[in-house]
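Explain this record to help learners:
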Amino acid sequence: MPSTVWSGSISFGLVSVPIKMNTATVNRDVSFNQIEAGTASRVRMRRVSEATGDEVASDQIVKGYEITKGHYVIIEPAELSAIRPTSTETIEIEEFVDLDAIDPIYFEQPYYLVPDKQGAKAYRLLVAAMEGLRKAALGRVVIRNKESLVAIRVVEGALVVQMMRYADEVIPVSELSGIPGDEIPVSDKELAMARQLVDALSAEFEPEKYHNEYREQVLALIDQKAAGMEIVAPPLASPAAKVLDLMAALEASIAGVGARPLPAGETSTDTGAAAAATPAETDTGAAATPAETDQAHQRSA
């Protein structure tokens, strides 16, 4: 069941909609406790001085910001309190923008907004207006003395508030090195086959068919060990062979999904142009299929 994390209202113009902010996601990561081998005793972390190794009492711990290696500016709690934003009970909508104009890279944690009974009509009106115009509302809210930029959007008739990153928290693509551009030529035939493969693999998004298989295997392992079963590790799968010929890889991929391979020299009508027949080009820079990286998942006791 979703839990309420905050209560307040949405304010836009002279309209105020009383709402509750409910959790929209649940963390199902498996976590483990650290246990001393042979004793089953929990291992606890303590705050110790780097200089002496002695444990430091909580009332002797202050906040310091490292300005150079080993040099800190000490900030007192009263100094932070003087500039900390005051918690409010209102999400102040500053403007409405096109929903498609917000890149998902700016989105962080989502929450559902549920209206109080007296705000049901205004809530429904706001949902209908935003949904019809495909707009998202941008605003700010202060929760637990922390100000956050938020976007409010409509999901299946409900308002979802999405905590957002500020622009200076997103690394622009222009700062990346190694992103290929026009200096890497792509032939019409290669593009047509790539589009054909994408089209053959296209489907409706059905999130229910995707599962965290590693987590399920970890939970199954825990259940088996708790039941006293003997665990036999399966043999490791052989890594996929490195693909060197891009055209051959495209043709094999298309054949694997049952799509019709293009005859030599023929391009998809989607490209809007017919390409001359050219021999398959060899791309020695094509990357091998990346190996899956197991992530460490933890389960709380």
Remarks:
- Residues 266-301 have pLDDT under 50 and may be disordered.
- The longest strand covers residues 146-155.
- The radius of gyration is 28 Å.
